[in-house]
Amino acid sequence: MKYLILGAGPAGLSFAAKLRQLGEDSFLIIEKEKEPGGLCRSVTVDGAPFDLGGGHFLDSCRPDINQFLFQFMPAEEWDTFDRISMISLNNKLIDHPIEANIWQMEIEEQVKYLKSAALAGCNLGVEMPEQFIDWIYWKLGKEIADNYMIPYNRKMFADELNELGTYWLNKLPAVNFEEILLSCLKKKAFGKQPGHAKFYYPKHYGYGELWLRMGKELENHIEYNKCAKEINFNQRNITTEDGSRYKADNIITTIPWKEWKEISGMPEHIFNNIRQLKHSSIETRYFPDRLSTDAHWIYYPEQELPYHRILVRHNFCRNSKGYWTETRVERTGMFEESHEGSPRFINTYAYPLNTINKNRIMDELLNWTIERRVYGLGRWGEHQHYNSDKVVELAVKLAEQLEERN
């Protein structure tokens, strides 16, 4: 075939859907699960949708991509929301991001946080540090670092935060000290809005419904229950665990590079570098309680709590109750025994970790594979912490580029 696509998540499905729109019919998707959607799959729990991969929403910041997706699930089937996300600090909820909402704290706390932010290294002309923890203190000051950023990131990503680089921290909301101060004086948030400032969620389904519908339209081009095992770069073919073999002019891989049991024809040093890539695994767990909050999700830096975030389902999913937690798998043993019967799901590959040497590894890897017409795409093909709308944008662009080239 012309294109073999590995993985029927948002990246693989969107790439295939765009190929079809461009008039291309020589493609096949193979998927290890029995249905499409990847991290964005949904199931029914307690009579309402539960998104297996945690908090996945359709951001409104890419209108062209939204219109592309609305071809599969029309706009009238979605609710729109202005994001309400909050942070739990000292048994009180304040709005996210913390830098723009210090004004919601008690006045004594505001003074303490403002003084700390004013003395942050970035405001004193101190050179930007290279290690993650040092960067947090340098950028945000001691109070925000100690009480929120460091404990939260340790819960979500890794116990050893200095394994992470600082190159990705531009994803954080951009709020400078003047805006922090202005927020306290004006008692309103200033600075750049975080991602998903406005988002869509289906009116009557989970987020996985979008990908089920896209998969339905592509069903003659998808083989399920096919787990890729070996990739051979010399022959450009794929072998699956059941012994099936596929060959294509172009291979699009959206699956984690560390999942390959065998890689043939790749230089040893590139193969060894793949083994250095790191990721975190997340458990999602359902609780039926109704929470007294308007928040769509809440961040929890408190170390005594196992989870780092909860998604308040009844505030964005119609006719539902309860909430679900996101917990790094290493911390799930902290749940009380009474919670062991709660519905829960493990996402082995949840978040790519932005380790110090990751960009170097991925640049070398993908430059080498592209020369052999094997293309990494999406969160796992590129090992980047992309949201689904970004993944779809990348998939559409790659389909257009390859079709124009071929």
TrEMBL record:
Matches recorded under InterPro entries: FAD/NAD-bd_sf
GO molecular function: flavin adenine dinucleotide binding; UDP-galactopyranose mutase activity
One matching Pfam family: NAD_binding_8
Segment forming the signal sequence: none
Cellular component annotations (GO), alphabetically ordered: cytosol
Annotated Gene3D superfamilies: FAD/NAD(P)-binding domain
Coiled-coil intervals, chain numbering: none
SUPFAM superfamilies reported for this sequence: Nucleotide-binding domain
Protein's recorded name: Amine oxidoreductase
Organism: Eisenbergiella tayi
